[in-house]
Amino acid sequence: MKNKILVWLCVFVSLSFAEVENPLKTAMDLVNESKTLYSLKIVDKPFPVPDRSQLINFPVYREKKGDSYDVKAIKATGEAKKLLDKAENYFGSHQYAKARDAYTLALQEDPKLYSAITYIGQTYGIERNWDKAELWYKKAIEANYVDFLAHWLLADVYKVKGQKEKALEEISIAKVLNRNNPRLEALRKEIYGLNGLNIKNWTFNPQVSIARDSATGNVNMQSDSIWTYYAFVQAAWLYEPYYKEKAKKVLMPQTMYRECLMGLLPFMENKSLKESVEVLRRLDKALNADKLSEFVFYEILLLDYPTASFQLDKKQIEGLKDYLIWANQK
């Protein structure tokens, strides 16, 4: 592609970034020299935030396998399923003591039915026996740290008991483990408000649309003016051979997102623009605090790949929990 927009952007990038290996300059040069025709249309109407309310996680447990985790759905079978169904029937008819007995028997039949531990805690919570509910939620978390429901309900217990700081910790972990759950988000807002934090559910939403014409192979992009470089870098990652080879050697898609974000840097030099555009403010804050990795993983990656949180170890999950709390300080 050799049109005026691209030539101007390449010249600007060359002047703004002197480093030979600058990822933004590399992407722009590759697009400029590509055999593929790239076109860009600047749009004024914003792209809405995608509805991800159905992109939620479900109960799982995991087992360590080398450097990663083997994640498995929690699913009762055989006699354990019969006992679990019996417990659920008792639960539904408000016979909570009998439900606990049946959950306990189901666990004895299948010790990996970790969600039953959480459900026992839930029966105590419904009975407003907060101390026993807390005890069982902690047992569930100890047995299966990625049990987002146990963290979620434990946060609610702490909120009821007036322990707002502990509630903040647990609801933030739950949010990392189930990024898009709308019901969980409602409690997060409440607890964050109690702790004097920003309750807004800000969502990273690139004002970019990229599509390849199946007939011609041309790549058509749309973006607003702030996201033009981001669009070109992402398009290069998606369609240029150089990046297909690079993707085999680096951590994907985090590396792609980090390089795409470089496309926002030229606009962050404009102080008034940075103050008026929230994504620029938040990115600037993350860069100044050396939290770009956390920004990329929580704000971008988990939105579309929420199950990626199940591959994080406890320390990494708690690191994202700390980031989430920090990012929402007023």
Automatic annotation (TrEMBL):
This is Tetratricopeptide repeat protein. SMART domains: TPR. SUPFAM superfamilies: TPR-like. Residues 1-18 form the signal peptide. The keyword RNA-binding does not apply. Gene3D superfamilies: Tetratricopeptide repeat domain. Keywords: Signal.
